[in-house]
Amino acid sequence: MKSLDDLTAQCIRCGFCLESCPTFVLSGEETESPRGRIYLARSAAAGTINWQDAKPHLDTCLGCRACETACPSGVKYGEILEQSREIVEQSSPNLIKSKLIDVSTDAKKLKLSGLWPGKRMPGFASRLISSEAPEADIPRPVHRDFPPLINVPEVKEQVWLLEGCAMKVLFPSVHEATKRLLRRLGFQANPLPFECCGALHAHNGHLSEGTLMRSKLLSSLGDSKLVLNSAGCGSWIKEGGSNGVFDLSEFLVENGLIELLRQAQFKAKITYHDACHLAHGQGVREAPRQLLAAIPGAEVVSLPESDMCCGSAGVYNVLQPKRARALLNRKWKNIESTGAQIVVQGNPGCHAWIAQAAREHGGTVEVMHLAEVLEIALSN
Questions:
Q1: CA nearest 21: which of 52, 60, 51?
Q2: Integer CA distances (angstroms), 24 to 29, 37, 50, 204, 287, in order
Q3: pLDDT for 115 beyond 70
């Protein structure tokens, strides 16, 4: 891992990152841009300013990594943000945020949090965390039934599937669809005996803890491949250096699902939202679109600003409710402009946050994970 000094020195302050950054687009302020935050981090590391002066601007960053896609110099902004946030956290621990991460990454605690009465997080709790009124609904599990799986080939290979924390609790049907899709191709998906990969820790000031969690997970894989259906988890784990880690969409394309899909049927108008850590973190953009385009009967329409963050960003919509809401409103306006019946994505945070907007606007648009759409098409 490069030092913070080396990482920030790569920035030539060209400005290509500005218009790709959602918080800069919203505010127009240099300090709310990647270039501005890099300058602040560099100054704090050099002792020119105090880290607490940089903290408010580091806090408002989504960590979406869109600036890395735009950057001609290859600046690893994600690493700069993670290292900077850890320095701030070590100097001034945020116990409330740490508790939020603890609950969000523990399946049992997350499930219990869904039992809280009411639609949204209590106002006092939100103001304690963010000093703002809450915007995010308390997440509730969503279930979907599939018919019995028949006429599948013999198992040719065992692979791991990380069921994780949020996806396991909130969207168990996504895991079911994932297992069924893999089984159709001759793969048996076995749950990896790890609940959390450490991504949310690393992105929110607990980099060392998150890195240790990832190392333990990767060392447990052996020679088996790991397939992931959560963009944030996939990006973080891939950055650990393993070549045997795949996002579900790229694994399905590489192993022949497109041919199977030619026999499927799914009549619907669909648009696709790029989860940040899939498009910008992993560079996976075409595979999901190739799979959707292969479904007979499906009309796939482009989503304006498809790779701009929806505002969920892990726990960002709890920590920064107003900014997250502004981005969700922008995302929803773009979704509505497509006339789509279904918006497809590949991350549990995006799923829950965009689904909230769908409910708030009458429920005429359904939000689905890519795995669900593909499995429904093949089950028809």
A1: 60
A2: 6, 11, 23, 20, 29
A3: no
